Amino acid sequence: MSEKPSDVRWRSRVWSILRAIVFICVIVFIWLGMNRSACAFVVIALMMGWVNLYQLRSQEIEKPYYKLWLNIVDGLLSLAVMLSIFFRDLYHSENVEKLLGIGCAFILGRLIAHTLFSLGVLREGKKLPQKRRWAKLANIATTITMGVYLLNLEDYKQICMVATILLISAAMVAYAYWYYRDPAHRKPLSIASQLTMSRIVLTPFFLWVFFYDNDLDYSNNSVVFKVLALVMVLGFMLTDFLDGKLARSMGEVSTLGKYLDPFSDKISNMTIFMCFIATGYAPVWMVALIYFRESSVETLRTLAASEGMIMPARRSGKWKTALQGIGIVAILLGAIDPVRALIPGFENLWATFPTIVMGIITTITIVSGIDYFVSSKHILQKFV
User: CA nearest 296: which of 1, 4, 16?
Assistant: First the structure.
């Protein structure tokens, strides 16, 4: 007796969640200096990905939007692992390999491009293509490269990274060719969507500004670049406020904007939190909890969309977003020496101030996640 498609989909989703947990363990092991354990979990993730793709056939049976978010989560996890390796090497060596940073940029670029193009396809009511040969090879190469860098195999690092970059480029070209050969895909973005995209595009530049002096200790950075980092974050917050307001006032609310806005927030905020880990402003477990909450709520939202249901924004979610922004601004503002000197006694408090602020952010983020799940019991009941 053949299994129902819903049962197969549910099994695939559980398998995907387990694989995501494996990747989170990899990130934690990297920051704990347990490279061999991290490499072992990378191998497990590689095998789990093979099972999900070829045995469970998740790409064939999944509903469109869930398949999209499955790809996004996979891309974010791969990017998080590679960035963790990059910051680890930056911490242990003054001359970090630039090719690794370029590889991280390619992984981010592929993730952004694939997400935007896929949203455009789904918005038009068309089917997403199955993962093609180049995409599969790029994913396998990325995972193998993770293991090579974790084991610090000097003779193979550059070879693997160059191969990964080339395969990622080939996958992007193949997808772009498939996308643009249909003239119907060539639609202009609204002003609101362009503002949203600006946060994604500027996020890598924030990394460059934050680590401009090639030193993990952010206090050693130039005051000019500290101010520039603060201005960029304020710009992120301003565009986050304006894109939704403009979309509603100009009647340009779109499916693309609804999905792109939270995605860009996750990209920018998680990048900033990763920078805070590298410079000692936030412990790994706090950022891991924040990431777990964000990915869990987005998965819940995707499940609701797959059933034709809408999960409205909660007030706790808005408070969470606002407090994350305020907390980030407070830390970056306090990191500017002239500003810190203006507040009596703040120099003594500064040693623990970033961790305290991140603790508050983490607590509010987790409480918000619990609120979303409690208020969405009717959605979960459809899958349990």
Answer: 16
